[in-house]
Q: What sequence folds into this?
């Protein structure tokens, strides 16, 4: 079908042996077309591509921050950590909150925030982060944060990481046309190590960046 000509980028939700799972929502023509797939249908895919989340640094306490369907992108990371921490899930309403049972089964504490208050606390996900940080006793291990969600949420997490001296990894939300670095539709401004910046492709050099790498003040 014409609307399915370009590939769609997805994070792997689960991977076991030769089976992988993704979670997606039919929001456009391409993903709505995928809802017609049936067992036995064949798809063409390439991957894994780009740079994923790094392993937790020794001696750090992990926090996960997910907005919308970012929960799925963080599950494999959560499963790989031997010392679970706390996960903050945010969405507009209860149907946007996914995978809670799976994370809790791994030993993670999950705190939920929805904008309409239909699940968890009413507000946005950073409200829950701020409350947790204010109540956290001093002298605990340094924090390492991992975030996936809308860019506005990632920018808010980055602001807190700088303010509180966290290390924070964000998976940027960019449209990708080819996924292999050729079309340049997914570029973003990243610091060059000095006073300037350079373009980097989120599909090959990302989508995960340490939050201080990104020029948030230059982002649209």
A:
């Amino acid at each position: 079908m014409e609307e399915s000509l370009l590939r769609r980028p997805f994070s792997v939700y689960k991977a076991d042996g030769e089976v992988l799972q993704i979670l997606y929502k039919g929001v456009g023509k391409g993903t709505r077309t995928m809802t017609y797939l049936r067992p036995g249908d064949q798809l063409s895919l390439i991957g894994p591509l780009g740079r994923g989340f790094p392993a937790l640094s020794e001696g750090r306490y992990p926090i996960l921050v997910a907005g919308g369907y970012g929960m799925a992108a963080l599950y494999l990371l959560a499963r790989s950590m031997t010392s679970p921490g706390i996960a903050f899930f945010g969405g507009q309403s209860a149907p946007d909150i996914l995978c809670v049972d799976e994370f809790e089964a791994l030993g993670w504490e999950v705190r939920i925030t929805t904008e309409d208050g239909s699940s968890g606390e009413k507000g946005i996900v950073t409200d829950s982060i701020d409350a947790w940080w204010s109540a956290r006793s001093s002298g605990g291990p340094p924090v390492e944060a991992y975030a996936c969600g809308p860019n506005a949420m990632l920018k808010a997490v980055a602001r807190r990481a700088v303010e509180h001296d966290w290390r924070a990894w964000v998976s940027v939300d960019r449209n990708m046309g080819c996924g292999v670095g050729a079309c340049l539709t997914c570029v973003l401004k990243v610091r060059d190590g000095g006073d300037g910046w350079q373009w980097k492709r989120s599909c090959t050099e990302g989508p995960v960046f340490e939050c201080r790498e990104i020029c948030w003040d230059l982002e649209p």
User: Anything to note?
Assistant: The chain is about 20% helix and 25% strand.
